[in-house]
UniProtKB/TrEMBL annotation:
A GO molecular function held by the record: sequence-specific DNA binding
Keyword Transcription: yes
Organism field: Magnetospirillum fulvum MGU-K5
CDD domains: cupin_NimR-like_N (cd06124)
Name recorded for this polypeptide: AraC family transcriptional regulator
InterPro entries found in the cross-reference section: AraC-bd, Homeodomain-like_sf, HTH_AraC, HTH_AraC-typ_CS, RmlC-like_jellyroll, RmlC_Cupin_sf, Tscrpt_reg_AraC-type_HTH
A Pfam family assignment: HTH_18
PROSITE patterns according to UniProt: HTH_ARAC_FAMILY_1 (PS00041), HTH_ARAC_FAMILY_2 (PS01124)
Length: 287
């Protein structure tokens, strides 16, 4: 993966003309692959839709996983960094002062309804630098109003970020040892007693170590399910679930669908490029 520093990230944003537009909004189809962008913030609001592949997003407070066929709302001015692997994505950037846009909303992962997907696809006829026209302005203002409704329901595809080095080490231990991680190993990584780790996790992170590990395992499974060479049972074992039934139940609780249906959507997205998606009927997009 290519890792861009701060200056290279700023140049890439400038080259793609993503900031400073006077237009109400525009759409951008990202052709980049296997890139990690450094910390940056956009002058406009971003509605990011992952057609295929998994996007990793991070703010100062949370780490987010954006699965395929889902979207992220990233408000103007929010410092974040992004890592994309083999990802196809499309974004709509709204001018920050557009009154129809959501207000007071942080970065959120959203369920991408068929309407959202169709509207983002149609919006690609107005790429960066396209002169504004009455149809575009009306269209994007309507889309911004719909974003107000969509951002009211957030999908729980995120994890907290540690404020202290000790808890950061415990979190890293969990991420790299999902199958076998336990509280004793996390305490050793953090150089803390088990009792102290439990207390500090609750105080600093706002969730228990057990809940953090459980959520980490499910997000790790979401990323692994994109590889059709690994069976669902193997994914469950790789992230630390004792049985396939327990994994399927926990996965459905967070993702709103079974691991099998989630994988089928990923496989369908992998077969359909973004150019074709714009012209497909809603039924094909929704799986």
């Amino acid at each position: 993966m290519e890792t861009l520093g701060a200056e290279a990230t700023r140049r890439r944003i400038a080259d793609n003309r993503l900031d400073g537009s006077d237009a109400v909004a525009f759409a951008f189809v990202d052709a980049a692959r296997h890139v990690a962008y450094d910390w940056h913030a956009h002058t406009g609001h971003q509605l990011l839709y992952a057609v295929r592949g998994v996007v990793h997003l991070e703010t100062s407070e949370r780490r987010f996983l954006l699965p395929p066929q889902r979207a992220a709302w990233i408000p103007a001015g929010l410092s974040h960094r992004t890592a994309i692997d083999d990802v196809e994505s499309c974004s709509v950037f709204f001018r920050a002062d557009l009154p129809e846009c959501p207000e007071g909303v942080g970065l959120r992962i959203l369920a991408a309804s068929p309407l959202m997907r169709e509207m983002i696809g149609f919006a690609t006829r107005w790429p960066p630098g396209t002169p504004s026209d009455p149809l575009a302005e009306s269209y994007f203002r309507t889309l911004a109003l719909l974003c107000r409704d969509w951002t009211e329901a957030e999908m729980p595809f995120h994890l907290p970020v540690a404020r202290s080095p000790a808890l950061a080490r415990a979190m890293d231990y969990a991420q790299f040892h999902l199958a076998k991680a336990d509280i004793a190993g996390a305490a050793d990584a953090a150089a803390l007693s088990v009792r102290t780790l439990r207390r500090r996790f609750a105080d600093e992170v706002g969730m228990s170590w057990k809940d953090y590990l459980h959520h980490s395992r499910l997000l790790g499974a979401m990323a692994r399910l994109g590889d059709p060479a690994i069976s669902i049972a193997e994914v469950a074992e790789d992230v630390g679930f004792a049985s396939l039934s327990a994994f399927s139940k926990a996965f459905a609780q967070i993702a709103g669908e079974s691991p099998g249906r989630y994988r089928r959507r990923l496989c369908q997205a992998a077969r359909i490029g973004p150019d074709r998606q714009q012209n497909l009927p809603v039924e094909s997009l929704s799986g």
